[in-house]
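Q: I'm writing a short methods note and want an example of a predicted protein-small molecule complex. Could you take the sequence and the SMILES for guanosine-5'-triphosphate and return the bound structure as C-alpha cells? Please keep the output block clean; save any remarks for afterwards.
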Amino acid sequence: MKISNVEFAGAAMQPGRYPKLSQPEIAFAGRSNVGKSSLINRLLNQKIARTSQTPGRTRQLNFFTINQALTFVDLPGYGYARVAKSERTAWQRLIEDYLIHAPNLCGVVIILDIRRGPEAEEAALADFLAYHDRPFLFVATKCDKLKRNQREKQRQILRRQIGGEPLLLFSARDGQGTDALWQAMLTLTAALETKKISDA
Ligand SMILES: Nc1nc2c(ncn2[C@@H]2O[C@H](COP(=O)(O)OP(=O)(O)OP(=O)(O)O)[C@@H](O)[C@H]2O)c(=O)[nH]1
Ligand SMILES: [Mg+2]
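A: Understood, no commentary inside the block.
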C-alpha cells in the first residue's frame, strides 16, 4: 500500500466516546510492551504512534487514518501488573466496549511476542472476538530476537498453541513480515465490505 497521508484522528478514554470516523478500522491488541505501537509505526513507515520502554504507555485508544481510507486503532496493552487494578479494569471495559460496538471495525490483529507465545489473556481475547463475530489474526512480533531456525521452531509451537490459526511473523526492527501483514489486513477490509453488501 502506498501511504501518502497519515493523520492522528483522535483518541478515546471512555466507553462510547469514540471519534466519529467512517473508514474501515483495524485494531491492534496485545499485552503491554509487546510492540503494538512499534508495529503500527513500521506499517505506516513513520513514528506516529508513541512507543516506550516503559510498559503501560498507551493508556487510551488512539486512531490513525491512512490515505483517508483506513483507520488503525492502537489499543492500550493489557496484563501489566504495575498499573492499579481499578485502572486495568477500566481499560479492559473500554477495550471490550470498543471491540463490541465499533461499527467500522473489520478485524483485530492480536500481537504476540515470538519468544513468549499466547497466555490466558490472548486465548480469552480470541474467544471474545469469535463470540462477537469479529475476525482476527495473530502476529508474532520481535522476530529479530530469534535466529532463523529458532524462529521456525517457535512458529510451529505457537501455531499449535493458537489452535492452528494463521500466524504471521513480524519485526518492527527489521521490517520482516510487513508486506504479508498489509496483505492480510486488506483481505479483512475487503471481507467486511462483502459482508455489508450481503447483509444489506
Ligand atoms: N527488537 C525488537 N524490539 C521491539 C520490536 N517491537 C517493539 N520493540 C520494543 O519493545 C518496546 C515496547 O514497544 P511498544 O511499541 O511501545 O509496545 P506497546 O505494545 O505499544 O506497549 P504499550 O503501549 O505500553 O502497551 C520498545 O522498547 C520497542 O523498541 C521488535 O520488533 N523488535
Ligand atoms: Mg503502545
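A: Remarks, as requested: Residues 64 and 139 are 20 Å apart (CA to CA). The chain has five helices and seven strands.
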